[in-house]
What does this fold into?
Amino acid sequence: MFETAIQTFTSPVVLFFVLGLFAAFARSDLAIPEPIAKAMSLYLMAAIGLKGGVAVSKSGVDVTVVSALGAGIAAGFILPFFAYGVLKTFGKLDRINSGAVAAHYGSISVVTFVTAVEILTGQSREPGGYMVAVMAAMEAPAILSGLLLARGMGSKAGTQSTGEMLHEVFTNSSIMLLLGAFVIGMVGGEVGFAPVSPFFEAGFKGVLCIFLLDMGLIAMRRIMESRSITWRLGAIAIFLPIVNGAVGTTLGVVIGLDAGSAAALGVLCASASYIAVPAAMRLALPDADPGIYLTMSLSITFPFNVLINIGLISALAASLTGANGAMQ
Amino acid sequence: MIETVTRKRIEILADKALQRRVTDAIDRIGITGWTIVPVTSGKGREGVWREESVMGTDKVLVLTIAAEDKAMALAEELAPMLTHLGFVLSMWDVQVIRGERF
It folds into this structure.
């Protein structure tokens, strides 16, 4: 466990994130230009989608892949209900904000997943390539659950129609790019990927470092300027990823995934979206406060997952599968 | 000397994600055109906000010029959104050339 924590804190990806947190805390003028940050997020999603697609084209679709997909989608639908209950009772949030925050915690964070893959690979526990497909499949279900919880069964005046909302959820730029690149990777396979791999592989870790630097800056600036976060919400933003991560990892082990893939499922369940879901919520639930859902997911849960929880989940997966010997 | 006429210039600060609700309203009222201007940061009742395009929290200014009756109709159309969605609307008189176009 200690060794796992040390490995996390010596990863340049994580250290750049810490640098971002520190720079913002010290009120440095360090900033990544917005168009570059946006371009980096698109690059990362295209690269991770492509790599996942190529991995699945190589390994094929078997029972493990299908059960991992099923478990991920089920978790995406169910986890928001638990989060909603906690947010409404302990967090004292109203129905709309509880539903909006719950959607974030049921959905996933691509960058948390990518960081986890980097860390797990460093521990000789590389998750299966199909986990990218699981990640893509887990983005949308929680949005639907969150909206159901926030709106009740009928849609309210002043909000979008269900058709418009579904269109927005499934054509959301990050879901579109991630799934699209995954399909391209599957169709192209290893042979098709080879000519474009220098662009998507050589720069990947470097871009991830700079992107995480930016996320560190944004996360810290948000929490320092936040006016809506109570201590109860702060506690929930730590409690949910711990519980969801443990549930996801256990679920992964139960359905027969290897330690790395079970940990990846745990990280997906533990992570909270801050790219796809906020965009969908702003349109579908404009009354919900972004100052609550973005600050919780990006400024508290994301750093907690990157700095601490990925290590905990990896250790849990190793102990549940008896894979401790695999560690270097 | 060139002839000018008085029109209303309307400026709406809105979330980029929701800008279509504003431009759709402008189109519905029958105002000929609009322009979207990106903005970088600001401060309001909810505190400081910044352009964060990755998270989709960026805002835009929607600018349009119209005759007074249409400007008032647009303000009425957008009024429910101002509180509900946190938009800011302001308008003032401007002199335009080729007034028939607005």
User: Anything to note?
Assistant: Chain A has a mean pLDDT of 88. The CA atoms of residues 1 and 312 of chain A lie 7 Å apart.
